[in-house]
Design goal:
By secondary structure, the protein is of the alpha+beta class. Helix content is 56%, strand content 10%. The protein contains 35 helices and 11 strands. The protein has an 11-stranded mixed beta sheet with strand order 1-2-3-4-11-5-10-9-8-7-6, with helices on both faces. A hairpin with a 5-residue loop joins strand 7 (699-704) and strand 8 (710-721). Helix 7 (119-147) packs across helix 11 (204-224). The radius of gyration is 33 Å and the shape is flat. The two termini are 46 Å apart.
């Protein structure tokens, strides 16, 4: 990261204009400042340690005396009328394990809440949401137990000590004071975690936390007096991927919770009963159930024992976690926008639905819940149970279908073919090996098995045991090799599958594509490609290279139209030849070539080709050599620069890889806040986003407030010639809510001064779509044509949505030179198709909600 000296005085002090440079706070500095601002959170952490020592829970679980005196529950809070337990349950941990988590949660989660909404609000939120969570949860348990409700009856005797209820409630309350990015992330992930524990564990404390979270959600709106904090706002593609991946990952962890807790109070505890504390002995089961299949099948207790016995072994234990691992792998892929990951997550949840009935049979058969009376599983409870089983996987599948447009990154066809071959080959080899050994030793199976039984058992060896443990045939191999393979083939196959899936989702392109990218960059460094040339490196573009390999054109094909990205990348004087060669290449592929955003120097070539061309905007250029922010034309910019300096603003010229984690988080938050406020589709093509910031050649200019917080960010694309950077083109521009008025003028002026100091020749404020440069004094406007009228109409229509004219007027403050950028095309009859293709390039994916928002904006 480039750091400079102290800020200089402004021009009023008689000194030359200079960039007000500074530095970013390190992660350690940010952490130190955080700790100093969270006294209540530290006090709660200390209080938990003290109460644990006093009550004895520091060394072990709460004693009966401690629980009946201080813990909340139906017995103490309602029946015993010990109302103080609603509060004491929030400050005493139940055991050392909860003490550790409580202290960490107080320092981190409660600390975040206190940092966001202040100490006094945090105290109120902790007490109010925690007390409401415990009180309402206890009353619901009491009411449900009186009505005979299954979960309430099963947990009515619970006594709960749970500091996390108040901490979770305060954290959710504080999200109302956060930007939309972290508000949405914390709410979604926290509620997902709580729901997973409610559904997979069913302990009273989880229900209390859920109620406390809901109370915090409402209390936040009361504190801020802003009902809009209750509503969800749209998010970027990147953020949607993050949230969907988080939800899938969290739900994937649920079966582990069920296995660890072994609770029959939840509908998701399938198969946790398959793993008894004391393993069954095969000889003992054979002695109890007899030596033949008929005797074993005749007894339900024998069926249960057979199911338990067939699920024993390290291989079967590992196989139980296959759905969890697959969902975690899918979550990783979803985070990166992979289409395969979406289908994988859908397939796993569909399998959960498919095997729901048999998993229910496993639970009923192997757990102590089927005594023939069905007093616990009456019709109403069974209906609720079934709905709960189906709701989660169905909800995940629906979410993945609704958000499918965010997961469209595919691996190359060859990579998918290799994946299919590896997975299929592994299955055939492993299944064939077990089947062959099984058939060779079929006489040693118990109960007695046929060849058909061994074939069906072969397929069962690849399915988690809690899905099919009680499905016929239940046969156990007797030979040592067959027994070993029965445990090994399933886990080995899924290891191969997971490794192949990760490899598949890591493939973003072929080796040739990677080589083309490197070759394109080398040509850009040498030949430049104009002030907009670096956009050729962005995702979505394909590189075409001339026959001699010294020139290139970046393009994308949409509906049979090949749209280039600005000028050809070639040596001076070679433009005509390169344009003709690329046009011939397009003709050979039956594409309509369109050169988009080309500069005036190439228009004579298109005139020779008898192509049409038309203006599509104006690029604004600032010459930085000898730049002086003096005189009346620079007054507004100079005022913003001076104001920023007086208010203690500094700037940092850096790159993404050099940023501290805290600054990365702030940039993400600023970007998501901007996107959420727009409620309109994100534009692409010549307009970059967050992903384009991360290129190591792109530089960032950041505006940092006197408190160390980021106020605005811009990104700058390099303009090269003969291997050296000779200028920079602005791309990404975002400002934080509540930033200084004129912050963007301050930041761009500082960037211009920095470029002047480092010897750059030109600063481009990029193109302004559909804009027309001001007329020179005495100049008369050209006669309007059908196309100019159409462009004027589009500019007027799109202005309410995207503010192109407003942006153009903003750039005029920097007294730029104007250079018209044009679109050249060979056939006027292709204009409708060209227009649709360019529209799709700028708006590649528009959801129905975004389309409605756009139409509403345009028709205001």
């Amino acid at each position: 990261m480039q750091e400079h000296g102290e800020r200089t005085a402004d021009r009023a002090g008689g000194l030359e204009d200079s960039e007000p440079s500074g530095r970013l706070r390190s992660t350690a500095e940010a952490l130190g400042g955080f700790i100093r601002r969270v006294p209540f959170s530290i006090a709660v952490a200390v209080l938990l340690v003290v109460t644990a020592l006093v009550t004895g829970t520091f060394f072990g679980a709460a004693s009966e005396e401690t629980a009946t005196t201080w813990a909340a529950g139906v017995i103490t809070t309602v029946d015993g009328r010990q109302w103080w337990t609603v509060a004491t349950a929030l400050v005493i941990p139940f055991d050392p394990f909860q003490l550790v988590f409580g202290v960490l949660a107080a320092l981190v989660l409660l600390g975040v809440a206190e940092r966001r909404m202040g100490t006094w609000r945090t105290i109120v939120a902790f007490l109010v949401t925690g007390a409401l969570g415990v009180a309402i949860g206890t009353v619901l348990q009491w009411t449900g137990s009186l009505a005979g409700e299954w979960w309430a009856s099963g947990t009515a005797a619970d006594l709960t000590l749970d500091p996390l209820a108040g901490i979770v409630g305060a954290l959710i309350t504080a999200t109302a004071f956060m930007g939309r990015l972290w508000r949405r992330r914390i709410r979604v992930i926290t509620i997902a975690f709580i729901l997973v524990f409610v559904l997979y564990d069913g302990d009273s404390s989880n229900a209390y936390r859920l109620v406390a979270a809901i109370a915090g959600y409402l209390l936040g709106a009361v504190f801020t007096r802003d009902p809009s904090t209750l509503s969800a706002k749209r998010s970027s593609h990147r953020e949607t991927r993050t949230l969907v991946a988080a939800v899938v990952a969290v739900t994937g962890v649920g079966p582990i919770v069920a296995l660890v807790n072994r609770s029959e109070l939840t509908p998701f505890a399938f198969g946790s009963y398959l793993y008894a504390d004391e393993p069954l002995e095969r000889a003992a089961v054979m002695a109890n159930c007899g030596g033949d299949a008929a005797a074993a099948a005749a007894s339900e207790s024998c069926t249960a024992q057979l199911a338990l016995l067939s699920a024993q072994g390290f291989g079967m234990f590992l196989l139980s976690f296959v759905p969890v691992l697959l969902l975690l792998v899918a979550a990783w892929g979803l985070r990166h926008g992979r289409r395969f990951a979406r289908w994988l997550a859908i397939a796993v949840n569909a399998a959960i639905l498919l095997f729901a009935r048999t998993a229910f049979d496993v639970t009923v058969t192997t757990a102590d819940v089927d005594d023939g009376t069905w007093t616990v599983f009456d019709f109403g409870e069974l209906l609720v149970w079934i709905l709960a089983v189906l709701a989660l996987p169905i909800g995940i599948i629906v979410m993945l279908i609704v958000t499918r447009r965010h997961f469209q990154i595919r691996a190359p066809q060859g990579a998918f073919t290799r994946f299919a071959a590896i997975v299929s080959g592994a299955f055939v080899v492993l299944a064939g090996l077990y089947l062959a050994v099984g058939l060779a030793t079929v006489g040693e199976y118990w109960p007695a098995a046929t060849g058909w039984d061994v074939l069906l058992d072969t397929f069962k060896r690849f399915v988690p045991p809690h899905f099919l443990a009680v499905v016929d045939p239940i046969v156990l191999p007797g030979h040592d090799l067959a027994s070993f393979l029965a445990q090994a083939v399933g886990p080995v196959f899924w290891v191969v599958f997971i490794a192949a899936a990760i490899r598949l989702m890591s493939r973003t392109g072929t080796a040739a594509k990677t080589a083309d990218d490197a070759r394109l960059r080398e040509l850009l460094h040498r030949n430049g490609g104009g002030t907009l040339g670096f956009m050729a490196t962005w995702p979505g573009n394909v590189a075409w290279f001339s026959d001699d390999g010294d020139s290139a054109v970046a393009y994308r094909v949409i509906n049979g139209v090949a749209i280039t990205m600005s000028d050809p990348i070639c040596a001076a004087g070679a433009g005509g030849r390169v344009i003709r060669e690329f046009a011939a290449f397009c003709d050979a592929n039956s594409w309509v070539p369109v050169f988009y955003s080309v500069h005036p120097e190439y228009l004579p070539v298109f005139d020779e080709l008898e192509w049409e061309h038309m203006s599509v905007g104006e690029e604004t250029l600032v010459r930085t050599k000898g730049l002086e922010l003096a005189g009346k034309p620079w007054q507004k910019v100079r005022q913003a620069l001076n104001r920023g300096i007086k208010e203690g603003m500094t700037t940092v010229w850096t790159s993404w890889d050099e940023l501290p984690l805290a600054t990365v988080a702030q940039i993400n938050a600023i970007s998501e806040e901007w996107i959420a406020e727009k409620e309109l589709p994100e534009m692409g093509f010549t307009l970059g986003g967050m992903e384009e910031l991360k290129d190591p050649e792109v530089r960032l200019m950041l505006a940092v407030g006197p408190d160390g917080r980021l106020q605005a960010v811009t990104s700058w694309l390099p303009v090269s010639r003969d291997g050296a950077v000779i200028g920079w083109t602005i791309d990404f521009m975002r400002r934080a809510d509540g930033s200084m008025n004129g912050i963007m003028e301050f930041l761009i002026a500082s960037a211009a001064l920095h470029m002047k100091e480092t010897g750059a020749e030109v600063l481009s404020l990029s193109g302004a779509p559909l804009a027309t440069k001001p007329l020179a004094p005495g100049e008369t406007p050209p006669e309007p044509t059908v196309m100019t009228r159409l462009l004027d109409f589009l500019a007027t229509t799109l202005e309410p949505a995207y503010g192109f004219s407003s942006l153009f007027r903003f750039k005029a403050k920097f007294n730029p030179e104007y250079e018209t950028i044009s679109m050249a095309y060979p056939d006027p009859l292709a204009l409708p198709a060209i227009g649709l293709a360019i529209g799709k390039a700028y708006l590649p994916e528009v959801s129905p909600a975004e389309a409605v928002a756009l139409v509403k904006t345009l028709t205001r």
